[in-house]
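Annotators were shown the component list below and the corresponding predicted structure, then asked to write short factual statements about the assembly.
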Amino acid sequence: MIPELGQMALVLALCLALAQSFFGLVGAQRGSGAWMATVRPAAIGQFLFTGLAFLLLVSCLLRSDFSVLYVAQNSNTELPWIYKIAAAWGAHEGSLLLWATVLALWTVVVALFSRNLPLQFVSRVLGVMGIISIGFLLFMLTTSDPFTRLLPPAQQGADLNPILQDPAMAGHPPMLYMGYVGLSVAFAFAVAALIGGKMDSTWARWARPWTIVAWLFLTLGITLGSWWSYYELGWGGWWFWDPVENASFMPWLVATALIHSLNVTEKRGMFKSWTALLAIAAFSLSLVGTFLVRSGVLISVHAFATDPRRGIFVLALIGVVVGGSLALYAWRAPKLVSEDGFSALSRETFLLLNNLFLVVVALAILLGTLYPLVLDALNLGKISVGPPYFNSIFMPLMLPLLILVGIGPYLYWKHDTLKRLLSQFKITVWIVVAASIIILVALWGRAGIATVLGVIIAGWLLLSTAMNVVMRWRRRQKVTRGIWGMTLAHLGVGVLALGIAVTSSMSVAEDTTLAPGQSTLVHGYRFTFDGTRNVRGPNYQAIEADIRITRNGKQVTVLHPQKRIYDGANSSATEADLDPGLFRDLYVAMGDPLGNGAWSMRLQYKPLVRFLWLGGLLMAFGGILAVSDRRRRATVSVPKYTDERQAVAKG
Amino acid sequence: MKALLFLLPVGILVLLILLFWKGLYLNPSQVPSPLIGKPVPQFSLPGVGGTSASLTSADFKGHVSILNVWATWCIPCRDEQPELEKLAQQKVVTIYGLNYKDDADSAVQWLQSRGNPYAKDGYDPKGKVALNFGVYGVPETFVVDSYGIIRHKYIGPLTASLISTQLIPLVHELQQVSK
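Structure shown to annotators:
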């Protein structure tokens, strides 16, 4: 009965989404207050029913109702309850339902927190979001129903994919979806503004907090995913340039560009059509990512079994949603004119450069991701594009951008002079030069030129970002939460860059065979293998090793990596163990048993690897601070949609 | 001119959609293996768990055979296993297994609980033989003719339709040639 209720809830949600978009878009066009008044209730109802369907799926999983195909395929009675819940997004159908639920959640939050915005504008925003909801609900109901029955019911479920049975992985998809789907808000704002033919500073002020929140979720999601792959996949890598990773990274890059471009539109009333294009592109890339992951067009570790109907459906959705919005853009955007100009040396120029770099990187990644497909489609052969391509594109484009990030926040809007700018860097430059010499000497012969350059540029970014706040203090300027947010986010970028530069070139990995009692030395740490024992987990059997690590005779830690065999899936997983530290991780993963109690092992020393995720967290926290800025909240409630001149003057 | 610039994004999208549309009808896992047309690499492996007979390159001579690379930790292999079992029952072709980077106990347990479609099943815990076959994912399946020459390679799980529409016709064709 409950699965049927779930299906019914989805159908009702679909009806309400239809009402939401019809009355929203047509009502706004006709200027009918009565029609537009139904949009908010419809959005709330759509959320309630989609959320209900999601809860019903969770309840089927918790009750281990194996008469539901999805439950039988992805859960198991032995599974800990937290992973029974996580199984709701462990496979295609369920994760699609999560997508729709998150979209409905964003919709309802927009509906509730937009009381001060003009009704016509809000109606259009909700109408556009309704169209996306319709697409995803239809997708689910026609090709990917999570409530499909399995008759006769299975005796026992097949278990959740073991590599997903992990706290970070349980949290990674919801975070990522909050980000992906959250970009639909900025998208809907842009489309609504294009329909209305009006996109001004006030509009940017409304759109920016939504974009930042979506962006910070995306940042957290990607960070969690990278952290998870680091300790769970078992070989200590943290980024693989896999198509699915690229699918989340491209929207992130464009969303980052969008936040900066919105800043210009908000403060100076410029870059309007560019901002609109970025808002459309960021969400479109989320959709393209969804297509790439779910259609089987590209080979990825994340996708194997596929259904061509699904690919066609997402493709049609992209055609309607993205095609429609871009056509609207081509029609309306030429009429959006900038209200002012700026000189070559100004904050606008630097934000434009920021956008240029980020968009070029995103396009290069898109090209690399799609290149195998292009060649295949043109019958030019089969190739795969790997990390060498992406690294060789990414690094040269990112390093100059990092230099610019250190300078941008110092610049005045509209016009600045080189003399004034240089005077700001008197102290910073000397410290950076001195530190560079020390770094050069310290790393000479131990690291390549790319590492040295990376460390120096990261150091420059960290120092100049910090100095900017210090100098504001000394000038007794107010440091708003917005500025704190920016500062933290930029520091996060610097910390991340430092982590990448050091850990990718100075890590030590040792693949070795150890028999009980044997030990080996890795970068000054002695790893001693004390033997294995059998361990029983809730739904797996494991062989656990004791690896004692000492340094200069003193014990550092004892690590317990495992090799697990999961009961339901009858599949094994490598559970690495690590000793985390701010400046270095010690990492042990078990390989294969080699007889007589000996095992192949991968032992690693990874300096500054924590900086990767610390950087991500700093960026996300900066986003939280920026959104919590009281000025921002205050301005959201200023309903002066028409009086744009005044907004510019204030900004 | 300026209007054309604003049309550019739509143009790019149209190209992308055409590309994706075409992509849906391509199979990214059909990667031609450099080993196609080459003899099976020389190897000799013990059987899984020491119970079944050993598998060597000599086993591929004299009849058409397929070599299925599998592992208990491989999730798509679970979907593939029943299809292989059905194929084995049809007795159209000899099926060999190559157990890849796996644990002997779990492999034996898998074969006992799910059924064993393999005439012989080589145990390759470190993937050394698989390396010579150019295996880079599991499951993969090689079709070998009666002279021991690799004729085709499937990446990803064999499905019922793949077996009936492609694999079996190919096997029959190769069997005709060798008669």
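Statements collected:
1. The CA atoms of residues 134 and 173 of chain B lie 25 Å apart.
2. Strands of chain B lie at 44-45, 55-56, 65-70, 94-100, 120-124, 140-144, 150-155.
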